[in-house]
């Protein structure tokens, strides 16, 4: 009779989950790994205080429902996290436990109890979006007489045209842009999935003007570089948008009362497409949503669209390195 291999330690499972499962098998983005990493750093620190065990001393048995429920309460009541953030942390823990269930059969009962913890219901706020006049004012705000102004005009025009996520804009290269009779841009979205989005004639003209003024054209160069030639970071893109909004607010004062993020531009793209009669399934493809159900939130965001929909419904007459067992599990997570 063969001896069953001993169950791996909790620390080893964490390592294999990040390196083998997330990093190699699923090949998730570094942003996804960072989100999972932050969850487990917080969880291990919480466990260290509440059950007085160092991270490397923890076992799968310690990851019980009582600990996880206490951690979720801690996130909301002590750290002031929203229900949405609380649910995101729970989703990360669930993903790890589902992985662990295939490797530590002795912990199945504990894992099942934690997996039974429900996501917390919460009211989803209606998505915020800008009017067409507000968008136009923002797109025209950067000074076209300067290099940064030309770049920002091209970048903001592309963001509004495509509804791209800020992370997608930050990694764009010249090679991703195809200017011609039918201009498109190739975006790399969540899960490294690629999609091609058509460019409107005006957007293509703005981008062509931006690209043509660069004598050092190289396909691998960032499409929207900083002054040093490196890719703009997500925070830098948000800052450039903030500056454009500030200038646009001179003519549209109400803009100064709003927080306009890159994601608000994305929402505005979706709403304007919807109001123009574009089918919701096409908008889902445009934005890179995995399911059209994700896009349905926009149907609830605009009261005009609701009223028109009701009228139509009425009847006619009515990291790669192998990780050895660590001395400090938190150090491993911080290294990701």
UniProtKB/TrEMBL annotation:
Keywords, ordered alphabetically: Chromosome partition, DNA integration, DNA recombination, DNA-binding
Q: Which GO terms describe its molecular function?
A: DNA binding
> Origin, by domain of life?
Bacteria
Q: Which residues form the Tyr recombinase domain?
A: 125-311
Q: Where is the Core-binding (CB) domain?
A: 8-101
The signal peptide annotation in the UniProt record is: none
GO BP annotations of the record are: chromosome segregation; DNA integration; DNA recombination
Specify the protein name. Site-specific recombinase XerD
Species of origin reads Phaeovulum vinaykumarii
